[in-house]
Structures are given as C-alpha cells and as structure tokens.
Design goal:
Layout (H helix, E strand, L loop, with lengths): L2 H11 L12 E4 L7 E8 L2 E8 L2 E5 L10 E8 L1 E5 L4 E5 L3 E5 L4 E5 L3 E7 L24 H16 L5 H22 L6 H15 L8 H8 L3 H8 L7 H17 L9 H7 L5 H12 L3 H8 L10
Antiparallel strand pairs: 1-4, 2-3, 3-10, 4-9, 5-8, 5-10, 6-7, 6-9
Helix pairs in contact: 2-3, 5-6
C-alpha cells in the first residue's frame, strides 16, 4: 500500500528526485473494497503527462520538484470526480474540468468514487524563478467551455494517441496547449497578472545577462526556458514590432556603442568590442551598427573621442 503514494509523488516530482515523497506524504483508501490504481506516463519534449486512475482514496503530500519541472501543474478530470485543495482553497472537479495547482505547496487529492485524472506539466507556463509565485489563482475550475474545453479535449486526445502521432505533430499540439491554457486563464481570471508580459520580461532579463554569448539565440533561449522556438517567438510578437533576433542584435549594438563612447576602451579595436558582445562577423556588425546609428562604428567613436589611437574597422 505504501508504494502508491510514493508513485504519485515521484511522477509529480520528476526524474531528478527519485525519492519524491516527503515524510508528510499520506494515503488512505476510502471504503471497504481493496484499493486499485494505475499510472500511465507520457512525454513530449519537456512536457509531461501522467494519467492516474484509482478507486476511492485520499492522497496528501508535497513532492520535492526536479529542476526540469515547472511548479505549475494542471489537473484534468477525465472520469468520475475529485476534490483537490491545499488547506486554504479547494475545488471539486467533474469530468472535463481542470484546475491549476502549485506543486511546491502541500496539497490533497480525494475522491469517494472511482476516478481518473491527467496531470500535465508544461514548462514555460510557470514562473521562471523558483521563488516567484504563480501568475494565476490555484484550485479553481477553469470551466468546460471555450478554450478551457478545447484544452481539455486536446489533452485527452493527445495522451490517448501519443504513441501514434509524429513527434513534430505532438510538439505542435503542446504549443497549442500553451495557447489554449493562456486564453482560458485570460477569460477565467481577467484580473490576474498579465502572464505573457511576465514571461517576456523574464526572457529579456535572461538575454541581458547573456548578450556576450555568441550562441545566444531563439533556440538556446527556448532550451533554457523549456519552451519551443515557436513559443519564444510568440512571446515577443507585438513588442515594438521586433522579433527576438532583432531585439538581441539591437541590445548588442547598444552595448558596443556604450563601450565605443568610453575613453577607457580606446585601446580596444572596434572589432574586439564587437566580438566581446557576441558578434562573430565583422561585416555583419558593421552593417548592423550603421543601420542602427546611421554611421560607421569608427565614425561614431570619433564623435566621442578626439584622438582614438586604435586600429579601427571601417
């Protein structure tokens, strides 16, 4: 009997924590019949799915999350009904309803009837920093209409057909789940934090810290945040009309300009400064700088430095 709560905790904790269940984890069957349960897991990229079917029972615990997981979990009721909560808030789910919960906090799942839920973890929806709160209220039903219903139907279909679809199709489906999730939350929680803005700000902060890395780009950023490249591009869509690639090179150009204006950097060539800020091609840097400032980097430097004794790139 002890195996069951350990399995639940481990599937929520992720592969980094094989112990998963803390000492506070408890489990209790409900009713006179022998307990039965099954767990089926699936994965698409960094997204994880786990279907849990069980006879009446109660689980309480707080898994220790693996670093690869988002603290934001979705619990989708696919059969029967369940009561989920954290001692402060709780929600009763019926078939096709889903809710959000924070797996960093203790929570409980209880059902007095045979039940089936699918737990979904989609990196990129939760906070980027471990100490940040979730952007949306927890343990509230998202409803069974509009984007919330399409999300529910897509999760159920994707999980059922996961072994029979091409990986590219599965990844596209996961991207669509993120879109549907965000729209369902926008409708259900109109006063909640603007999550896309929060994501965009966090990604921009990451870019600022890694501008000097020549490998910085949509693909590396997507890997860092557990998103697809398509999702990263979508976060930046509509931000001053810039793509994420344009934002990166413009920030690099302005960092170079700051150094070119500084007399303390007069001993460094324009090329050296450009390469220090992540550029790997002198001609590309020259064109980008002139497009941004209307003059070559050398002319720009001479505007601020009277006699730069440097080897300059024209």
């Amino acid at each position: 009997m002890r195996v069951w709560p350990d399995l639940i905790s481990r599937l929520l904790a992720g592969s980094s924590h094989t112990q998963g269940c803390q000492q506070a984890c408890t489990f209790k069957p409900i009713g006179p019949t022998a307990f039965e349960g099954s767990i089926t897991c699936g994965k698409v990229g960094a997204a994880r799915f786990a279907r849990v079917a069980a006879t009446p029972s109660t689980y309480r615990g707080q898994p220790t999350l693996g670093d690869e997981l988002s603290p934001l979990y979705v619990a989708l009721q696919t059969r029967g009904g369940s009561l989920l909560g954290d001692g402060t808030s709780q929600v009763a789910l019926s078939a096709s309803e889903w809710t959000i919960f924070d797996a960093r906090r203790p929570f409980a799942i209880s059902s007095d009837q045979p039940t089936e839920l699918i737990f979904i973890n989609l990196p990129g929806l939760g906070p980027a920093r471990a100490q940040d709160p979730l952007a949306y209220p927890t343990f509230e039903s998202l409803g069974t209409s509009g984007s919330a219903r399409i999300f529910s139907d897509l999760v159920t279909s994707l999980f059922r057909e996961l072994e029979h679809v091409d990986e590219a199709v599965a990844m596209t489906s996961v991207d669509n789940l993120r879109i549907l999730f965000s729209d369902a939350c926008r409708v259900r929680f109109p006063r909640a934090l603007q999550f896309v803005e929060t994501q965009r700000r966090t990604v921009k902060e990451y870019i600022e810290r890694h501008l000097a890395d020549p490998e910085l780009g949509p693909a590396s950023i997507a890997r860092e945040f557990g998103m697809s490249v398509r999702q990263i591009h979508r976060i930046f869509k509509g931000t001053c009309g810039e793509t994420i690639g344009e934002f990166i090179w413009k920030r690099r150009i302005h960092k170079c300009a700051e150094e070119l204006r500084c007399a303390g950097n007069a001993v460094n060539s324009v090329t050296a400064i450009a390469f220090r800020w992540g550029f790997s091609s002198s001609p590309h840097f020259s064109r980008a700088f002139k497009d941004e400032f209307g003059q070559t980097a050398s002319d720009y430097r001479r505007t601020f430095l009277a006699s730069p004794a440097v080897s300059e790139l024209e």
